[in-house]
Amino acid sequence: MAVIELAGVALAALLSENFVLVSCMGIGTRLRAFQDPIDALRTGYCLTAVMVLSALLSWLADFLVLTRFGWQHFRLLFLCLLIPGIIAGLRLFVRVCLPELSRRMDDNLASIGTNCAALGCALLISQRSYGLGSALVFALFGGAGATVAMASFASLREEVSFHHCPRCFQGMPILLITAGLMALALVGFYGLHLT
């Protein structure tokens, strides 16, 4: 039964509750992540790592400290301080231990600080009272779903010529319509449960 529940959480995070297209939480990343597929993948990897670490640390803090002492009203403040702390610690760790990786990924990690998907993931995990396994699965597949959405949009933007559409739709309007159609495709999975 637990495997089926985890699979349901994974499918929900990946498809019907996609952080970028359905919840509109991962849009705070820099614009280049939606234009270059390689940059979209790098940003997605960084976002997934931050989401998993924040899910682990926020679940532990929520379970061991905030709930035990009745400090649930400090949860949002704690999460708002935890996410930038994780990003700063990850940037420092990568800069010291893996300097070549830091050269390529530092801008992507810095952009996660303005991305509300990591904070939204940790807050949703806390509000839904997920267990530790479900929280980690939700964060991992939520990050993977955001990565796929950003990479798909960037690849579509790179491959398809949007210049053959009517003049009034060229530029940002056709990009917003495309993003809306991608979101509608994922909303079709809403309500999908494994039972």
UniProtKB/TrEMBL annotation:
UniProt cross-references to InterPro entries, sorted A to Z: NqrDE/RnfAE (IPR003667), NqrDE/RnfAE_oxidrdctase (IPR050133)
Tree of life domain: Bacteria
Keyword annotations of the record: Membrane, Translocase, Transmembrane, Transmembrane helix, Transport
Bilayer topology term: Multi-pass membrane protein
Subcellular location(s) of the protein: Endomembrane system
Pfam families according to UniProt: Rnf-Nqr (PF02508)
Signal peptide from the UniProt entry: none
This protein's GO CC annotations: endomembrane system; plasma membrane
Membrane-spanning intervals of the chain: 6-28, 40-61, 73-94, 106-125, 131-153, 174-192
Descriptive protein name: Electron transport complex protein RnfA
Organism of provenance: Flintibacter faecis
